[in-house]
Amino acid sequence: MKILITGGAGYIGSHVLKQLLKETNNEIIVIDNLSTGNIEILDKLKTIRDFEFIKIDLKEFEEIENIFSTNNISTVLHFAASIVVYESIKNPIKYYLNNTNNTTNLIKCAAEHGVKKFIFSSTAAVYGNPINISQKGIEENLETNPINPYGMSKLMSEKIIQDTARVYKDLKYVIFRYFNVAGADIYYEKENLKPQIGQSFPEATHLIKIASECASLKRDVVNIFGTDYNTYDGTGVRDYIHVDDLADAHIKAIDYLDENPSDIFNVGYGHGYSVKEVLKTMKKVSGVNIKTVNTHRREGDPAILISNTKKLKSKMKWKPKYDNLEIICFSSYIWEKNLYI
Ligand SMILES: NC(=O)c1ccc[n+]([C@@H]2O[C@H](COP(=O)([O-])OP(=O)(O)OC[C@H]3O[C@@H](n4cnc5c(N)ncnc54)[C@H](O)[C@@H]3O)[C@@H](O)[C@H]2O)c1
Ligand SMILES: O=c1ccn([C@@H]2O[C@H](COP(=O)(O)OP(=O)(O)O[C@H]3O[C@H](CO)[C@@H](O)[C@H](O)[C@H]3O)[C@@H](O)[C@H]2O)c(=O)[nH]1
């Protein structure tokens, strides 16, 4: 029985792939169109053990179907997507096609070819801009109300997966709503942190990636998008989770579905940091002064997103190891500093 990973050459998919290669014996097929993914990362991971890589776009429905009919796929981990919130506002059709349409075809193939487990990368963006969240953070049963096409494209995908699984009784799903994923592979060589993989797409827009580029002297300034939010220092607050802890939740989800029903889980740490706190931490761990420019809010950005992850911890026995902003920033910085040098 094989595991199919879509978007396995991307940032999160490659970290999950690494853990699967190290911790399981399953045969793995990675599919990716390399639009933001990195083939060199796949080559590195092949040194752990071999897996099949097929360069293909998910929109090639017939060829995707053919992959299912010629392989005995039991589990699908679906990461491939377009992921930039503000781009989704400018180009919503790209997001509905790449995220919602392609997920619809993928779940159709999975259901019709007897796939048992479907693990889907959703997002905190499905919650929109929740204003009345308690100190407990956002729980999974909070009303969903996306405020941008990216969040809506993922919420629609969630519904399509749920509706399909209602009909195809053998197909179970885990929907993970990730909060802000950051950091790079925790891998120590002679006691020095030396990530083997990390976020390598040069046009990435994430705050910690951009701050790492600045600390690595590849970029001059970090723009702070909005200083007038209703938060303790006026800047946006997010729940940053280390990518290896997120990857671990995926490994747990595969076994979880053997004995448990389909479900939706938040993945975060349950506390948030402001943009200013992130930049201060990056400065501390890198020792580099990071220049900032205060600018206007970025369209589509909510003020605060903080998870409640009690459900994931209690049901899947998930225990995060890197719940520490300094570790997240340092691993991201070390990766960035050594990237393409
Ligand atoms: N990074 C975050 O903070 C975050 C937060 C919430 C949810 N997510 C979700 O996690 C998933 C992975 O995100 P990421 O940060 O690794 O992004 P990424 O851009 O690094 O990875 C996406 C991968 O999918 C591939 N891909 C995209 N469209 C494709 C298509 N049509 N056919 C084949 N391959 C395609 C890309 O080449 C890339 O390798 C996405 O579904 C994203 O929505 C990410
Ligand atoms: O150069 C920058 C980049 C970001 N920010 C701010 O930093 C925070 C985090 O932004 P970013 O790292 O771009 O992440 P989000 O826009 O929160 O979106 C990420 O996190 C979401 C889940 O919370 C996912 O759904 C998305 O895919 C993922 O890109 C926000 O307040 C931004 O306004 C800046 O001030 N300057």
From TrEMBL:
A Pfam family matched in the record: Epimerase
Transmembrane segments in this chain: where? none
Q: Which GO terms describe its biological process?
A: galactose catabolic process via UDP-galactose, Leloir pathway
Reactions this protein catalyses: UDP-alpha-D-glucose = UDP-alpha-D-galactose
Q: Which InterPro entries match?
A: Epimerase_deHydtase, NAD(P)-bd_dom_sf, UDP_G4E
> Is NAD included in the keywords of this UniProt record?
yes
Alphabetized, the UniProt keywords read:
Carbohydrate metabolism, Isomerase, NAD
- What EC identifiers does the entry list? 5.1.3.2
Which part of the chain is the NAD-dependent epimerase/dehydratase domain? 3-268
What cofactor requirement does the entry state?
Answer: NAD(+)
SUPFAM superfamilies in the cross-refs: NAD(P)-binding Rossmann-fold domains
Question: NCBIfam families of this UniProt entry?
Answer: galE
What the record says about family reads: Belongs to the NAD(P)-dependent epimerase/dehydratase family.
Stated name of the protein:
UDP-glucose 4-epimerase
- Organism of origin is Malaciobacter mytili LMG 24559
Q: Which gene encodes it?
A: galE
